[in-house]
Specification:
Length: 199
């Protein structure tokens, strides 16, 4: 019973911090961004997230982790979703991500559904942010307003991901330095690093 309370409490703080840190960094975002250009986008995304979680409950935590790993490297720009090209090696195969994060197939499915309704309108970065929030809410966690209107990155860097996302074995000074570079406090660091490595 205590474990469940602690996990729920940690999840609450984790989502609250992720929501505030990564949405405040994008002051021009609006929760109504797609209201006129793709009014069914939020419904489509939410429905797909719920379907994925019903199929496999753990995918909810995976979508939240995907969003965090995306945001921790050059901001919430969807760069984590990019496959390698002849011009760059992306973030998917970076050491902290390789065989560690999952849910790309769910995001691809959501993107296909949204594209069918509104081709070329909704960014993958926004889909990832909404999928993370909707996962937490569906699994009983808190909700938060997601600012929308992010632009997708057209490039990614495995080397930046390798230096920006620390391994769970990182020492305290490396953690403090990394979180400080993201303008996160020690309190943020404790909550986020504790939750990330418990997924």
């Amino acid at each position: 019973m205590i474990f469940l309370f602690t996990a729920s409490y940690d999840l609450f703080w984790f989502t609250l911090i992720v929501a505030n840190v990564f949405t405040l960094a994008h002051g021009k975002l609006s929760p109504n961004h797609y209201l006129s250009t793709c009014p069914k986008a939020l419904f489509i995304i939410n429905s797909a997230v719920i379907a994925a979680i019903k199929k496999e409950t753990r995918i909810g935590a995976s979508l939240l982790r995907l969003h965090f790993h995306d945001c921790f490297v050059n901001g919430c720009d969807g760069s984590l979703l990019l496959d390698d090209t002849p011009n760059f090696i992306g973030e998917k195969t970076a050491t902290p991500n390789y065989n560690s994060i999952r849910g790309f197939d769910v995001v691809d499915d959501i993107k296909a559904r949204v594209e069918k309704a509104c081709p070329g309108v909704v960014s993958c970065a926004d889909i990832l942010a909404l999928a993370a929030r909707d996962s937490v809410v569906y699994l009983g966690g808190p909700s938060w307003t997601v600012g929308l209107g992010r632009r997708d990155s057209t490039t990614a860097s495995r080397s930046v991901a390798n230096t920006s996302i620390l391994a769970p074995t990182s020492n305290l000074s490396a953690l403090v330095s990394s979180f400080s570079a993201q303008e996160l406090s020690l309190k943020d660091m404790v909550a986020l690093s504790g939750m990330l490595y418990n997924f």
